[in-house]
Amino acid sequence: KAGVTQTPRYLIKTRGQQVTLSCSPISGHRSVSWYQQTPGQGLQFLFEYFSETQRNKGNFPGRFSGRQFSNSRSEMNVSTLELGDSALYLCASSPGGGVTDTQYFGPGTRLTVL
Amino acid sequence: AQSVTQLGSHVSVSEGALVLLRCNYSSSVPPYLFWYVQYPNQGLQLLLKYTTGATLVKGINGFEAEFKKSETSFHLTKPSAHMSDAAEYFCAVSDWGGSQGNLIFGKGTKLSVKP
Hints:
- The structure holds 2 protein chains of 2 kinds.
- In chain A, the strands form 2 sheets. In chain A, strands 2, 4, 5, 6, 9, 10 and 11 form a 7-stranded mixed beta sheet that branches. In chain A, strands 1-3-8-7 form a 4-stranded antiparallel beta sheet, with no helix packed on it.
- Chain A has strands at 5-7, 10-13, 19-24, 31-38, 42-50, 53-57, 64-68, 74-78, 87-94, 104-105, 109-113.
- By secondary structure, chain A is mostly beta strands.
- Chain A is built from no helices and 11 strands.
- Helices cover 0% and strands 56% of the residues of chain B.
- Chain B has strands at residues 3-7, 10-14, 19-26, 33-38, 44-50, 56-58, 64-68, 73-78, 87-95, 102-105, 109-114.
- Chains A and B meet through β4, β5, β9 and β10 of A and β5, β9 and β10 of B.
């Protein structure tokens, strides 16, 4: 099976712009989670989608949003970009998002905000 | 609420030496624990996980971890380090509080392997 794919791999934006990142999960996986990774804060959970519904959300401002499509592909959007949004954004998929499920991670999208 | 603490942000070992990466967790419910590895410019790859059953868990690439409830620990070990083990390692616990299995990660431990 193909792994989790994320596009684009790299992005450079300027403050105030908005950005959309895309994630395609492993075939058959219905849960998609997003994480932000920074040197200072480490890996932090953004949100999780299952069957097109957001089931869980981390402690991030409303500028961070996401959605999931009927084929389980997911996008996340960040509006009004700030310098502090520069990070590696990782997407992970799992069959059902249960507490014992293994999450399979994509390679990430590295976002740089200038 | 669950949390994870990884002792040592950097660990350096010689090739062939024992690798020991420490992880302690805090959880008021049965913890489900994971170790992931991240190579430069890549995503995270699962090494092993503990859910229930045997407390000694074997993973890929010769790694293993032992769940010790009395010590609230889940340390990762490998008997003999290889140069290819140089990477960053993350311990994580499933977040029950979020009602689904999203992960709470430790800060990570960067492993260096000296020839």
